[in-house]
Amino acid sequence: MKIAKTLSRxxxxxxxxxxxxxxxxxxxxxxxxxxxxxxxxxLEKANIIANTVEPLLALDIYLELxxxxxxxxxxxxxxxxxxxxxxxxxxxxxxxxxSKEYSTSDSSYFxxxxxxxxxxxxxxxxxxxxxxxxxxxxxxMQKYTELIAYLLFGLGFIFLLLxxxxxxxxxxxxKIAKTLSLYKPDKEMKFPYGKxxxxxxxxxxxxxxxxxxxxxxxxxxxxxxxxxxxKVDEKEQIIYxxxxxxxxxxxxxxxxxxxxxxxxxxxDANNKLLNMxxxxxxxxxGLKLNDFVVQADQSFLEDKSVLSDTKPDKQQYEVTLIDRNxxxxxxxxxxxxxxxxxxxxVGAFAFVEDLREKRMLQAELEKKTRSLEILxxxxxxEVVREVEKRQKSEQIMHQQSRLAAMGELIVAIAHNxxxxxxxxxxxxxxIEDAFNYGELDEKYLHNAIEKSLTQLDxxxxxxxxxxxxxxxxxxxxxxxxxxxxxxxxxxxxxxxEQSNIVIxxxxxxxxxxxxxxxxxxxxxxxxxxxxxxxxxxSKEGSNSNGEILIEFNTFENTKYISISDNGGGIPLDIVDKxxxxxxxxxxxxxxxxxxxxxxxxxxxxxxxxxITAQNGENGAVFxxxx
Length: 626
What we know:
This protein is α+β, with helices and mostly antiparallel strands. The chain is built from 15 helices and 16 strands.
């Protein structure tokens, strides 16, 4: 049975259940009591009959008046409630008579037994048995049950009316409760029955007043919470950004960072240190600093400790560490004590410089320098050999002119190398100064190395340029122009990016195969792009936002490569001289004047092409035709 969850129905249902339970208990008790009472009444009737006829039977038996005994038995059976009569003389059955209604299968009867005593004596002379019907008793009980049922039905109807009345009385509370179920502190609402002059009206008025105060307070708090949330979000964002910055600095530092507590147990370590020691972050936590220092440096480490108030808060020293693979790792420590608000030492942190990496870089630099010296010596020998070879050969006119200008070439080489060597020297000196002033970090060091290697590469390319100028061009073959141009550009990307120059490339065809020398064409493209770069950088009022455009076109079986820039163009008085040997507009030592001359010889004499130069809208335009 599903019961609605309303107060009125709960009250009516509870009252009804309790009342019915009480009535059921009363009914069961009364039924039991009345059942016993009705039975006692019927039993008493039977006993009265037995007691009434007992003296008469005693006299008849005593006088042996058998007819009288039989007559008395028949009179008894005429009683509608008596179903069977048995009269015993002594222990012998003398008379038995049963009514038509008697049946052994019917249990609606009870037996009354009465001893027959001799008149004026207590001597037993017989016995009387009466089987008495209990139908009357059952009829009375049935009528009593019907009466109780009617009573219960009447009470149930009264309870129903009472429940409906209570439901009506409590309906205002039901509406108020429904309003409360939809209650929200930040929502305007009004409880019903607020104007009635009774208890319901008082409750509604009180609730309306309370809600008005709660609503006002809620809206004020909501506004305050929004402002507070904005401030919290701002603070959280600031804290998050600070954490991220600290995390970036901590993990990306060029130095290893080691944080320990007062007992020298590792509290934190950055990625650089973990890479040095070959440990994972969760593995190194809790391990002591002494566990990573060789035995020979243990006493020195104690002497340089900053974890004692008797020692300076900052120390610098070199020790040898042991990594996970038991390899020795020389390192330089910059250690500082960590103090709490009470100025008590609670730990220390150290910047750990990887000396092995530094020494490897120094060795690499020395190796490069030695290689450069050897290369220089080999170049001089190569130049001498090539000059001797070219002097013996009179086959090609441009080779004879180079042999005649050998002295100028050597001077040009010396000038080309002087500036890069000076720049490398300055970079090395700048690294030392940065280290002394504490400005040396991984980015600074890598930048200096990259610049030095760029100068070395430039010198190496210069050597290759002169070497290629003197050796034969190799074997002709069919090749695609566009990939060769891409290779030439890729080798200059670093220089162009440093000068903030962008290269754009467009192709209006797909077949760009020619018969010639790929490496020589690559050198020609590089020389033209380098000249464009120099022109853009030297343009007056330029911020180096340069652009170089390379276009591929075909027209009537002729293939064109066009290279244009926005460097301002070629002065009109020299535009016809730029392909002459040794002609250059650069300062002394910065150009040999052979780049475009060599390009013209390669394109026109060796690859049956044509190269021209002219001024475009924003700068020079070089065209190569095949």
